[in-house]
Design goal:
Blueprint (H helix, E strand, L loop, with lengths): L2 H7 L3 H7 L22 H10 L8 H17 L28 H4 L12 E2 L5 E3 L5 E4 L9 E5 L4 E4 L5 E4 L6 E10 L1 E2 L4 E2 L5 E2 L6 E9 L5 H5 L5 E10 L7 H6 L9 E4 L17 E7 L7 E8 L3 E3 L1 H6 L29 E3 L6 H19 L2
Parallel strand pairs: 1-10, 2-17, 12-15, 12-16
Antiparallel strand pairs: 3-6, 4-5, 4-13, 5-7, 6-7, 7-11, 8-9, 11-12, 14-15, 14-17
Helix pairs in contact: 1-3, 3-4
Bound molecules: zinc ion.
């Protein structure tokens, strides 16, 4: 492969970029699948490689050959678990040239290129109002358990495994689901501003962070069992916005210093889960769709509930999450641990019908009604 070909192959990469774009506000539509990496030929794979290697200027050809050879091993499944085969986020590729970023996850985990993936960009003008999406019932969310929570740096996020199982039901869910763990996705502090790291976005707008509370159907024992059922997993997603300091997060954020490195775990005092969320009366407005886990294996059939009302943390509280690291001592800080938006494809996003009217619209309606009543009285 000559260098010139490498360059000419790099041209169409822009279309692929749109899929990962922030703030575009557009529904991913049209000939969506033409640039899905799963169907790439040799030239496109070279282009994919070149796009993923921002720091390399020398020995491009031989590095590309090595990468492609490893790719062949990856797709044969012979390099599983070996160096270069492990999945990572795009932000890790500067340090680990050979790890598989979001565009390559499907090489090892085929489900990652399926048609019902998460996260997505929610386009409010095309969501479908669904009257059956009543407020969820939260059971045990306000209870502080007696046994400790396990907090863990798993190399991709900070995850808290619960000791008790608060439950959700209603809200259009046909079964009850129990919470098993929660974890976060976040961005990175730029020179002037924080680059948001939520996974979902609404009309192209991302928030600073996103909290996921992972639930499984209450009759199932663990996530492995839950994945065997089409309705086994439900995730509640909350945006986290930079606002005032949130004192309810103090304990959790303080624990981050005990899980600085990959594999570190610590025990922490449990909290009522509700203390980490917006007030219950603010949770009536939410989006519902069926998607996937946002990390490999990208398992599909996850029932997503994305709440409109964000959790509020201060900027310095948000910044604390980026003090943990992806790996061992001196490895890269854990930043931008989010998967880019995926295509919606044939799916629909539903919107809870509760309080559809904006407060201003409600006032306007009342004024109109009053005017009508008054005018009929004086006729
Ligand atoms: Zn998540």
């Amino acid at each position: 492969m000559e260098k010139a070909s490498l360059h000419s192959a790099a041209e169409p990469v822009v279309t692929t970029d749109l899929r990962d774009g922030f703030g575009t506000g557009g529904q991913w539509s049209g000939n969506e699948n033409r640039d899905i990496p799963g169907s790439l030929g040799f030239l496109e794979r070279l282009e994919e490689w070149e796009h993923s290697q921002p720091c390399i200027s020398e020995n491009k050809e031989s590095a590309a050959r090595t990468w492609l050879k490893e790719g062949d091993e990856r797709s044969k499944g012979t390099n599983k678990g070996g160096i270069g085969a492990h999945w990572c986020y795009q932000s890790q590729k500067y340090e680990q040239l050979h790890c598989e970023g979001p565009r390559q996850w499907h090489l090892t985990y085929a489900a990652c290129k399926e048609k019902k993936q998460s996260p997505i960009n929610i386009v409010t003008k095309t969501v479908v109002h669904d009257k059956s999406l009543k407020p969820l019932n939260f059971e045990g969310y306000d209870v502080k358990g007696s046994s400790k929570w396990k907090i863990e740096n798993n190399g991709h996020t900070v995850k808290v495994t619960l000791s008790t199982s608060p439950k959700i039901g209603g809200g259009g869910l046909e079964r009850k689901y129990k919470a098993i763990e929660f974890h976060f996705h976040w961005g990175v502090q730029g020179v002037q501003q924080y680059h948001p790291g939520s996974e979902h976005s609404i009309d192209g707008e991302k928030q600073a962070m996103e909290l996921h509370i992972v639930h499984i159907r209450e009759d199932l024992s663990d996530i492995t069992e839950a994945k065997k059922n089409a309705d086994g997993v439900a995730v509640l997603a909350f945006f986290i916005k930079a606002e005032e300091e949130n004192k309810n997060y103090a304990t959790l954020i303080k624990e981050l210093e005990n899980v600085n490195y990959n594999g570190q775990t610590a025990k922490m005092d449990p909290l009522p889960l509700s203390s980490l969320l917006p007030r219950e009366e603010d949770l009536e407005r939410y989006y519902r769709y069926v998607g996937s886990l946002t990390t490999p294996d990208c398992h599909e059939g996850v029932i997503w509930t994305v709440f409109e009302k964000p959790i509020e943390l201060s900027s310095s509280q948000i910044a604390q999450f980026s003090t943990v690291r992806f790996g061992e001592k001196n490895s890269t800080y854990m930043v931008e641990n989010f998967r880019p938006a995926q295509f919606l494809n044939e799916r629909k996003v539903y919107w809870s019908s509760a309080s559809i009217l904006l407060p201003t619209a409600k006032v306007l309606m009342s004024v109109l009604a009053l005017t009508y009543i008054l005018s009929s009285l004086f006729q």
